[in-house]
Structure formats: structure tokens, C-alpha cells
Amino acid sequence: MNKGKLIVFSAPSGSGKTTIVQHLLRKTDLALEFSISATSRSPRGQEIDGKDYYFLSIDQFKTKIANDEFLEFEEVYSNNFYGTLKSEVERIWKTGKAVIFDIDVVGGLNIAKQFPQETLSIFVKPPNKIELEKRLRGRATETEQKIQMRLAKADKELNLALKFDAIITNDNLKIAKQEAYQLVSKFLK
User: Fold this and answer.
1) Model's pTM, two decimal places?
2) CA distance 36 to 84
3) Which CATH number belongs to the domain containing residue 68 in this structure?
4) Distance between CA 154 and CA 147 in Å, rounded?
5) Which of 115, 142, 170, 172 could cross-link with 146 by S-S, CB 3.0 to 4.6 Å?
6) Is residue 189 one of the residues assigned to a domain?
7) Which residue in 114, 120, 124, 113 sits closest to 98, CA to CA?
8) 34 in the Ramachandran plot: left (φ > 0), alpha (ψ -120 to 50) or beta?
9) Is residue 188 part of a domain?
């Protein structure tokens, strides 16, 4: 692999990492490109293959695992896989851009472990558990069972925050975006 820079954003669901990543992608001076993840789940709503995710069948996903085509992957639930294709990272590096990830905590740490010199890993923390639950409920897209599952997972994820290069507490989105921009801008120089 011809190595470039990697920017990893990880957080519990509802922390605001996707909003921050989208903000950074609009900053043309940063020369970032989003890494599209692969998944074995079906598209939801208006999701488009090759734009939102690379949608693979379970068999296709398992074949790519066997062929060592993933930088990292995780079986989130039984036969529900998510991962980062090596070809996706290589494609972006060839354009001369840095790769930015909006990825789960375990996946983010796996990338940083493989590319310690090339990676800036940033953990986005919610201000507190009450606010996190409020944000998840505010989306109005999840069942009560899913919300409880995400909150339980958040406890485990928050315990891993110190393994990241930087932590941004998102209690004020404008400030969190500024902090993220400063961290990424400095790392890319």
C-alpha cells in the first residue's frame, strides 16, 4: 500500500461524529475524501450502493474476508458485517487526498493500530449519558430496544476513549467543529 494520511472519527451513536465529519468534508483546504464502508445489511431508505455503503451479500463479504481484502471488519450482529475495504483506502490515496472515516470505536482503533504513524484518531464524546439518550430519542428512527442496545454499547465505547489520539466533547457543536478542524488541519500539515 502506498501510504497516505488517515483521519478516524469514532464515537457512540448520537455523539455527533457524522455531523462533524460532514463539516470537515466541506472544507476544501483539507483535501479529504470519505471512506465508504462495506456492509452485508440491506440498503435503508434512499441509501445508494457505492455512495452510502458498498452493499455486499453475506457470501460476498465472507469471501472478501477470506481473501484478506479488508483493512478492518466487524460482525456487529450475527451475519451483519461492516468493514473497510483496502481497495477503498488505496483508491483515495491515489488521488492524493487523506482518507476520513466515520467508523465505530473498535474499527477506528483497529485502523490506528495498523497505521500508527499515518493515523489521527479522534473520539467524539457526548456531554453526558442523559444528553446522549435525548439525542438518540430525538432522531425518532429507532425502537426502544435499539435505543437501549445503543446506550449499553455506548458505556463500553466511552471506556475506550483514552485509546484515541484526541477527545472532543460535543456539548457545543460549533466549538466541536472548530476543534476538529484545528486537529485535522495541524495533522495534515
Assistant:
1) 0.89
2) 7
3) 3.40.50.300
4) 10
5) 142
6) no
7) 120
8) beta
9) no
10 Å CB burial of residue 94 (0-12, 13-18, 19+) is exposed
Count the domains in the chain: 1
Q: Give CA–CA dist 186/159, Å, rounded.
A: 26
Neighbouring C-alpha atoms within 13 Å toward the C-beta of 71? 27
Q: What is the CA radius of gyration of the chain?
A: 16
pLDDT of the chain, 189 residues: tens digit per residue: 568 999 999 999 889 999 999 999 999 999 999 999 999 999 988 899 999 999 999 999 999 999 999 999 998 778 889 999 999 999 999 999 999 999 989 999 999 999 999 999 999 999 888 988 898 888 877 789 888 888 988 989 999 999 999 999 999 999 999 999 999 999 999
Nearest C-alpha neighbor of 90 from the set 7, 30, 24, 6? 6
Q: Assess contact for 154 and 13: CB atoms under 8 A.
A: yes
Grid cell for residue 154:
455506548
- Domain assignment present for residue 136? The answer is yes
Task: Look at residue 44 in the predicted model and tell me its pLDDT.
Answer: 82
Please check whether residue 63 is in contact with residue 90, taking contact to mean a CB–CB distance below 8 angstroms.
no
> What is the extent of the structural domain holding 19?
6-183
Q: If residue 184 lies in a helix (H) or strand (E), which one and from where to where?
A: helix 173-188
